[in-house]
Each structure stands twice: as C-alpha cells, then as structure tokens.
Specification:
Elements lengths: L2 E6 L3 H13 L5 E7 L11 H6 L13 H6 L3 E4 L1 E7 L4 E6 L5 E5 L2 E4 L3 E3 L12 E3 L3 H13 L4 E5 L3 H12 L3 E5 L11 H13 L3 E3 L4 E6 L5 E6 L3 E3 L2 E4 L3 E3 L2 H5 L24 E3 L6 E2 L6 E2 L4 H15 L13 E5 L2 E7 L2 H6 L4 E9 L10 E9 L5 E8 L7 H10 L3 H4 L16 H17 L1
Parallel strand pairs: 1-2, 1-7, 2-3, 7-18, 9-16, 10-11, 10-16, 11-12
Antiparallel strand pairs: 4-5, 5-6, 8-17, 13-14, 14-15, 19-20, 21-22, 22-25, 23-24, 24-25
Helix pairs in contact: 1-8
Length: 458
C-alpha cells in the first residue's frame, strides 16, 4: 500500500528530505506532499547578506531548486500554504492557503517537521514598526531591499553583532549607508571569546562602522507616520532610516510545542540519531528547528546552519525512504567575514568549557597566512583551548585576513577525531610559501598548547 510523507517547510532540510526519499521510493510507493508558507524553496538563506550588499546580483542565484523543479520530481509542493496544527494522535496536519484562506486536513504516514528558525525580535516598543527588518528568509531579504530602495536617508542601525549582524553591517556599508551596530555584549561575535571578539571590534571600527557595545536596546523610536526613525538604549539614541535585527534566531517550534512534541533547553525539537523525534516513530525533524548533540561538550545545542540542515534532510529522506542513515552531531564550526576580515571558530569557548566542568589551558599565537617573505602574507591570530590533563583539543578561534577562516577546518577534523594537541603537531599539512609558513598557524598553536598542557601537569 502506498504511504504518504508530509513535509512542513520547503527549504533546506524539508526539501532535501523529500528529494532523498523520492530517490529511494517511486511515486507508486510513496506520495510526498510538502507545505511552504513563503514564495521560495530550496534557497541559501546564508547568501542573503551578499544579495543585499550587491555581491550577488540576482535573487534567483540563491535558489537551488524551484517549486516547478520539485514538482517535476513527483513532489506535491504547495506554496503559500501554512501548516497551522499538527494532530499527532490523528496522524494529520491542518494547512491554510494564505491566498484564499481555505483550510483542510491532510493525513500522513510519515511526517517531517522542517519549520526552520525565526529572527529574535524582543517584545519592545517599535520592534514591529515599518523599517525594522529581520533577515531569515528570501521574503525577508526582498522586503529589506524594497525598503532600501524606497528610503532616502542613508543611516542604518544593526541591532546585534552575531553572524547576521556583522554580515548585514558590511552589506549596508557596501550600499553606501552610515552603519551603527548596537550590541548588548561585551564585544561583537559572542561565539568567540571576548579577547578574540575585540579583534573584530577593532577591524569593524577601522572600516568606519560605529560600534556600540554593552548597550541594551530599549525601544525603536518612530516618526509621525509610524516608521522607524531611531534606536534607543538607556543612554542614547541612534538615528536610523532602516533598522536590521541581527540578534540571532530561535527555533520555529510553535507547532511542535502545541502538539506536545519534546523540546530542549533552547526550544528546539529533540531527535534521535536518525533525526526521528524522540518518542514518535513516524515523525522526523531537521534543520534550524532542532537541537543537535555537541560532540565536544556532550550537550544539546541549537545551531542554525544550512550545512547541518541539508545533512539532516539527507538522513531523514534516507530513513523515510527505507534506507538507514544517522547524524552523529556537530563540533560547532562556523566562519564569517566583514569585508576582508575573516572570522572562524569551532569547538568550545572558555565559557563553554567552564559550563561543562572542564579544566583547560589556552594559548594565543600571531602568525601569517603565507610565508612571511612571500607577497600578500597577511596577519592571523589563532586561539586554542586544550583539556588540562589529557591535552584533548577543545576549541579553536581564528581572526585574520585572506586565508584565515578555512584553516579552522583543520581543527574541526581534529575535534571530530578526538585528537590531542600533541597529536595535531604531527599532522601532515600541505606547505608551500604561497599557502602557509613552514609551520601552519594552527600547528604553531597546537605546539604551544601541548607545551602549556605539559607545564600545567607539572
């Protein structure tokens, strides 16, 4: 008998799951229905800042597969249709057509929840005013661009200094805006330790971006027409013709919560290694709406990245399609940039290590991206954490210029393999003067960390 797979969410995790399941099962074996409330499917949300900046010229360059292409693969994709309720006991979902308002129930044998995440928008006065934008979907990006094209002024305030915040600050600066970043943290990029975040602060200030740290936004001030005109803190007001929220995202799990599905500390769905929702044999979840296992700390985390979402979808699709796959977890690798400054991290920060009771040593080294005598060699700072007694690598942060960020992948592999910093010093990495010094900066840090571990044990 033919089964029915219902997918809630038409981006990375949801449509990867649908596509993989279709590869494994024919339409005669498996009917696939997918609901997407937006106008686009299978797109790169991570590319939105570069579209806004103009580095990516056309919106459609960010779209990997259109609704028509999915339908050609025998996936019944229903656009502009929002799922409003999950009836777990009845094995069905209620969906509303956002154009007509019509609602209907759809039964499922296998349900995939891929509802993504939503920009953090605190309930402060003026946060919903015209001119205030979150940036999570292509619809969000288009709305922001429409505002930028209509706005005569050239003052922008970005609230928050995480990945989205710093990337949007660059995008707006490239569009000719005077940019102020208001950040409640001690330094930008809270995914880094404060000493590394300070390097980002200095670089952004050097680019002409006004940085306001240790500042809590209290409200968005509006003009006589109700549009945003400034962002206020306890101490000051910052004029704004447009406001962009870069305060991070939260799992979009209102449906799951209402259906009494298990949620974790960060509000994300909890799954097993097969991405099946815990305690529910016929419900899977993936992408930005789930929490995943941190392989270094052993705790669940919420990490919203397209790389993970696509992997989750592949795992879900394989399992729904009758195969077998698992997603073991992550080490927390991420990279970003502000103009020519590259920022990377993987593993634990100092506060993360303390939170799980680990004793550790830290080292910080200054090096260059190439041999110092080779033209174009650029400075790079590498910070490394290692477990105090065992020398196990715990985390790496890198801030530098061209050639810095992707070096974090060396550390990501070492973390996944459970290597010690001593073992890392023997890694056989590629070397030539145009690509690195004789000792790669990551290996210099590993050598220094291994010495620190030995000294700490004496």
């Amino acid at each position: 008998m033919r089964e029915r797979m219902v997918v809630i969410g038409g981006d990375a995790a949801g449509m990867s799951a649908a596509s993989q399941a279709r590869r494994l099962k024919s339409p005669d074996e498996l009917e696939i229905i997918a609901f997407e409330r937006g106008h686009f499917t299978s797109y790169s949300a991570c590319g939105i800042p570069y579209w806004v900046s103009g580095d990516v010229v056309e919106r459609d360059e960010l779209i990997a597969r259109t609704p028509e292409e999915h339908r050609a693969r025998a996936i019944d994709l229903r656009m502009r249709t929002e799922v409003t309720e999950i009836d777990v006991a009845g094995g069905r979902v209620r969906a509303r057509d956002l154009e007509s308002g019509a609602e209907e129930w759809t039964a499922y044998d296998k349900l995939v929840i891929a509802t993504g995440a939503r920009p953090d928008r605190p309930p402060l006065p003026g946060m919903d005013a015209p001119g205030v934008h979150g940036v999570q979907t292509l619809d969000d990006g288009q709305a922001l661009l429409d505002t930028l094209e209509r706005t005569e002024g050239r003052r922008a305030v970005v609230v928050g200094a995480g990945y989205i915040g710093v990337e949007m600050a660059e995008a707006l600066m490239k569009r000719g805006y005077e940019v102020t970043v208001v950040n409640r943290g001690q330094e930008p990029m809270a995914t880094l330790d404060p000493d590394m975040g300070r390097l980002v602060h200095e670089a952004m200030t050097g680019l002409g971006i006004a940085m306001v740290d240790d500042a809590e936004v209290t409200k968005v001030l509006t003009d006589a027409d109700g549009r945003a005109r400034a962002v206020a803190t306890d101490d000051a007001e910052y004029p704004a013709d447009v406001v962009v929220l870069g305060m991070g995202v939260r799992p979009e799990t209102a449906l799951a919560r209402a259906a009494r599905l298990p949620l974790g500390e960060y509000g994300g769905l909890l799954t097993d290694l097969a991405m099946r929702v815990r305690g529910h044999d016929d419900i899977w979840a993936g992408g930005d709406c789930v929490e995943v296992l941190d392989l270094v700390s052993g705790r669940e985390r919420h990490i919203a990245l397209g790389t993970h979402a696509n992997k989750h979808g592949q795992v879900i699709g394989a399992n729904v399609g009758g195969g077998y796959a698992t997603f073991p977890g992550v080490v927390g690798t991420a990279v970003s940039k502000v103009c020519d400054l590259e920022i990377a991290r993987t593993g634990l920060r100092e506060k993360d290590a303390r939170a799980v009771g680990l004793q550790y040593v830290t080292v910080t080294v200054e090096s260059t991206s190439r041999a110092g005598y080779y033209p174009g060699a650029a400075p790079m700072t590498v910070k490394m954490l290692a477990e105090r007694r065992t020398g196990r690598l715990l985390g790496v942060q890198i801030v530098g210029r061209e050639g810095a960020a992707k070096r974090v992948d060396i550390a990501a592999v070492a973390l996944t393999a459970g290597m010690t910093v001593e073992q890392m010093t023997a890694l056989d990495l590629g070397y030539a003067p145009p690509f690195s010094p004789v000792w790669d900066p990551v290996l210099i840090a590993a050598r220094k960390a291994s010495v620190a571990v030995r000294v700490a044990g004496d």
